[in-house]
Design goal:
Layout lengths: L1 H28 L2 H8 L3 H7 L3 H14 L9 H15 L4 H11 L9 H20 L9 H23 L4 H12 L6 H4 L8 H16 L8
Length: 224
């Protein structure tokens, strides 16, 4: 078990190092040598988990969606909002999310299949919106697939603009404005009135999620 835990930690360390390299340099300029230097692992350890730079990049992109799991809410549309705000907050400093975001929208290299990341994120959003519709929270006129694609495309654009202007510092605020403009065309009025869109919510939710993850892992997070 200890060996398995060590392997999991090593894999995560390599992923985070690779993501930071992709964030700084982009896919084409990133090198395995730079990843090894930042991760502080041997070439054998890296190739045990990942056979190539492309595999590393695809693993980082996979984590882009898998890493976002918010706490269940009475209103499913609140979970939709929360997932967006948690991601917006993590894009400030989380290496996996920052690296994946650049890989997903970066232009240039044709060696990386970026569409799978966009498809996975769209399906993630579509699933939440479909559940919200089943609960009667979404207007009947809404085409869920198109709405999910709109959100993913808009978020990518907001992320690019925020990164260029403030290094993601104002992304949560920009996302809140987007929600304020679009949710009235999606949510039924009684649900819309109950949604919490505060841009500071992402930081609060992330702290709670991190605390829960530590508690589930048996780590004492009490402050003396």
């Amino acid at each position: 078990m200890a060996q398995q835990d060590r392997a999991i930690r090593t894999r995560r360390l390599i992923l985070e190092a690779a993501a930071s390299v992709f964030d700084d340099l982009g896919y084409d300029r990133a090198t395995i040598a730079e990843v090894l230097e930042r991760a502080g692992v041997t070439k054998g350890a890296l190739y045990f988990h990942f056979a190539s730079k492309e595999q590393l990049a695809m693993a980082v992109l996979d984590e882009h969606v898998l890493d976002i799991a918010v706490q269940p809410q009475k209103i499913k549309l609140q979970e939709f909002v929360d997932a967006g705000q948690v991601l917006a907050y993590r894009l400030r400093s989380d290496p996996i999310q920052r690296g994946a975001a650049r890989l997903a929208v970066e232009q240039g290299s044709n060696h990386l299949d970026r569409k799978q990341s966009m498809i996975a994120w769209t399906r993630f959003v579509e699933t939440m919106l479909n559940e919200a519709r089943d609960r009667g929270e979404v207007l009947e006129s809404v085409v869920v697939t198109e709405t999910a694609e709109l959100f993913v495309g808009a978020f990518a654009g907001l992320q690019l603009m925020s990164n260029a202007l403030t290094n993601q510092a104002d992304l949560s605020h920009r996302l809140t404005i987007f929600f304020e403009h679009t949710l009235p065309s999606i949510a039924v009025p009684v649900v819309l009135a109950k949604l919490k869109l505060d841009p500071a919510r992402g930081a609060e939710l992330d702290a709670a999620l991190q605390g829960k993850a530590l508690a589930d892992a048996g780590v004492d997070v009490a402050v003396s």
